[in-house]
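Action item from last meeting closed. Structure (397 res):
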């Protein structure tokens, strides 16, 4: 119907869009992927992934190259589009890279099927993944893995902490990686050839952490050599733990390194951008100065050493978003305000300045006028308006 040339052009576009939405609901294929030329996106995939993933250039590069091989039509059509084992300490970007792949390849970061393998620690766990056989309890529910992929065949499937799974579960993985399909408890064949399989593991993470701590104060050839040696020790641990037939079927094993101080700052800045977007939906502007980020990073430093970048988000939520939320309840901040977060002189506390949006825009115009007047004799300085309100937060709640 979408190809008919008679009738109004507007109706044709509407029916095409509606048809795309219907097919997307039926198949789980994002509308943007139906007939879309991916050539440019594939060529720019490393840069696109780095919009969400800070650092990890080697990991991003390896994954992007493997995906390009598969999407170019040169991969095995009877296997998943890619299968990876992501290795490294917690909070370094393993899950974030999986989300980035779902977003860039399938149009939505929510097309990530995530399964916590710490919940599949005995042989009976296989039934939970593929569903019960006919006539047994729970038969009508289907498998937790097979049902998700049956309705979302274009997705990234993430098996988190895979080293904790029972040995029987790995037989399921072998079937997926070998044949690109899985038969569920009801005898239905579920297609995995359009999925990307990602397994994560913390095996050997202590080797990477030790090498990172030894070279934390400086980076030179010796520290890079230590990092390379640590990577080999990680891979050796993996070889000892996992069955050779699983390792040999993976597209790549990817080792993630601990994040540097500068990379952690970039993670914090990325989190701030997300917070600013949330506040913008409420008509509230947000700017967090670098000095304020330093305060947040200092407060979360102990947890960051143990858990990677994840505590940064919690600290920002607690120290920035929670306090802004309280100011909203107190009616200090409303939908016409701009909040600037800075550090005090001792760089130990956060200072919140609340401006009316109109005042902030006028101050920006005044600053531009002042800059212009310095190079033009005819220019006149405009007096800046003071902030509508000023609030200093001293207590560390």
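Sequence:
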């Amino acid at each position: 119907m979408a190809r008919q040339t008679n009738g109004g052009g507007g109706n044709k576009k509407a029916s095409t869009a509606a048809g795309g939405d219907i097919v997307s609901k039926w198949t789980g294929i994002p509308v943007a992927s139906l007939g879309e030329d991916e050539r440019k996106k594939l060529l720019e995939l490393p840069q696109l992934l780095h919009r969400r993933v800070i650092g990890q250039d080697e990991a991003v590069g390896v994954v992007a190259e493997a995906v390009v091989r598969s999407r170019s039509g040169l991969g095995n059509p009877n296997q998943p589009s890619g299968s990876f084992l992501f290795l490294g300490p917690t909070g370094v970007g393993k899950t974030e890279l999986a989300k980035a792949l779902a977003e860039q390849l399938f149009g939505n970061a929510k097309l990530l099927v995530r399964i916590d393998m710490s919940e599949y620690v005995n042989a009976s766990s296989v039934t939970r993944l593929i569903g019960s056989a006919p006539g047994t309890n729970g038969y009508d529910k289907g498998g937790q893995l097979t049902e998700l992929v049956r309705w979302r065949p274009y997705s990234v499937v993430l098996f988190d902490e895979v080293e904790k799974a029972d040995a029987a579960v790995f037989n399921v993985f072998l079937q997926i990686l070998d044949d690109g399909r899985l038969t569920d408890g009801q005898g239905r064949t579920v297609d995995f050839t359009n999925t990307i399989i990602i397994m994560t593991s913390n095996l050997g993470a202590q080797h990477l952490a030790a090498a990172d701590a030894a070279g934390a104060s400086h980076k030179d050839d010796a520290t890079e050599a230590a990092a390379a040696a640590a990577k080999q020790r990680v891979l050796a641990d993996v070889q000892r733990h996992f069955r050779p037939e699983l390792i040999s079927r993976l597209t790549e094993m990817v080792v993630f390194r601990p994040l540097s101080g500068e990379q952690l700052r970039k993670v914090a800045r990325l989190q701030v951008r997300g917070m600013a977007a949330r506040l913008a939906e409420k008509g509230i502007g947000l700017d967090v100065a670098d000095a304020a980020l330093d305060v947040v990073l200092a407060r979360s430093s102990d947890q960051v050493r143990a858990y990677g970048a994840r505590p940064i988000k919690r600290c920002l939520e607690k120290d920035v978003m929670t306090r802004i939320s309280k100011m909203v309840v107190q009616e200090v901040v409303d939908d016409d305000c701009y909040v600037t977060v800075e550090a005090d002189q001792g760089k130990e506390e956060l200072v919140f300045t609340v401006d009316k949006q109109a005042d902030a825009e006028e101050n920006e115009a005044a600053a531009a006028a002042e800059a212009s007047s310095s190079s033009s004799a005819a220019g006149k300085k405009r007096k800046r308006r003071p902030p509508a309100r000023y609030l200093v937060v001293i207590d560390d709640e």
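Note appended to the action item: The two ends are 62 Å apart (CA to CA).
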